[in-house]
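User: Predict the structure for this protein chain, please.
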Amino acid sequence: MRLQIGSRLRSHRWPAAAAAAVTAAGVVLATQVAFADTAFTATFEDGSTSGWSKSGGTWSVVTDGSKVLQQSNAGSENARQFAGDSGWTNYTVQAAVKPLSLGSGGFVGLLARSTSSTTFYRLALLPGNAVQLQAVNSGSVTVLGSASRSVATGTWYTLAITVNGSTISGTVDGATVATATNAAITKGRIGLQTAYASANFDNVTVTTGGTTPTPTQTTASPTASPTPSRTPSTSPSTSQPPSSALYVAPNGTAGAAGTQASPTTLASAITRVTAGGTIYVRGGTYNQSSTITIAPGNNGTSGATKNITAYPGETPVFNFSAQSEDPANRGLAVNGNYWHITGIIVERAGDNGIFVGGSNNTVERVITRFNRDSGLQISRIASDTPKAQWPANNLIISSESHDNADSDGEDADGFAAKLTVGTGNVFRYTVSHNNIDDGWDLYTKTDTGAIGPVTIQDSLSYNNGTLSNGTVNTNGDRNGYKLGGENIGVNHVVQRSIAYRNGKHGFTYNSNPGSMTISNNLSIDNAERNFSFDAGTHTYRNNTSCRFSSGGSNDKTIGNADSSNQFWTGTNGSRCTTYSGALAWSFAADGHLVVTLGGRTVSL
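Assistant: Here is the predicted structure, written as structure tokens:
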């Protein structure tokens, strides 16, 4: 699996509201589509190709870590699958694409505006390390633009085509291949295609509205104690927020109308916004002394979330330094259902920066920092909340949490889903670093009963146990990913994630004797073990453990570990030569996490 990180978008609910951009110290997190709506998504997890129409080739849903759509006939001259609406005009189609074989004269491609099986725009991966953006009209191919880049079989790539009027743009892994003007095809469906090739396809999404994707830029390398200076803001967009939305500003007042000219407060807007509505939060610092709460029962719906979104081009910072350290003093408490929070910073709360007690919420492109408990935590609202109402199906995506620290050093993690959570909670493309305790904490305990399984995908945990200013508290556990507690078995899933130089273990079962799935992960130079699993029936596949510095102990894995793994038992395996060098990371244009080591994109 190519860990760009997240070269595959394992869809939970890709957000429909504006995405934020991160810019500082050379880091850019840009939106793929500003103020976009998701028109179509396909992850093939149900094993079905319903809604797709085949033309040539041998197609089936197979397992490649998770369910994917595979075209397996490498000799087929034209193998295609089409989906969507023939009337679609302006949109972005994106898919994860993995060439399995790539014959001479062949290609693997993504299609947009298909009016027939031989007329469409195509972004094609070609033999000889080339990518082309093409217009195909009745089978005649016009090359609109091309780029030289590595194209390897067995590697995942994220392909995206944006069609906006006569402007056609293609990207691979967030980097622009070409932007061209062509008016030959004005509308049509999406498609997947191979020619004299075989390939896997996954996570197909279509979004409408907004602007052309912004190319990715990379970070300067975070060293052992990088300065956490990244701040999110939305990308400039030609689309303007609607006048019917509610507006919040640092100088807003609770009784104000909530217009751009007369902004209100976030606490007030939360009580007024209707399902499907959006609260736009203007930039600046909001000095708060009380928790901002989305109350239970204040809900959106599955088809019409309630949205809190940073105003385009601006950075809202909610500062709770006036609070004392106390479990009651959180920053933002999301206790309702079907909310979508995008592009804000929450800092210095007396407890959690963001607390999620509701279900079916999305927290996207946020930063939680310098809070006095875990930066973002999912847990039940109150001690008497029945288990059926524990928070479930929340997605935390493309977000960062760092330098959270409590006074005793025992509880402040970057991200946590612990003590009391339901099923279906997912962390994806998330970065946790320099927290006083753990990067992730999935602790469960006997007096509450087992929590629901949590999924962590395409994420990064580094330097936890040491704050950015060098502070260490010996009470902290200091793990990258802490996956249990008190001998209660919970079947968590951790995929395509990295643990780097954390103060104790990289990945640890922490007394979870369940059947976790630990696959395609990389663990480097953690102080004790890179992988530490002392009990359970866990399954390990394609994991890699490396040591480039002295110290540390041999990995320990109890359960089903086959030869696809390279654990550390005193020497590095052959894959470790790829993973030496300084760590750097950034978010790609579409929110994927890109990690490099020694200037090389990490591949697993």
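The two ends are 5 Å apart (CA to CA).
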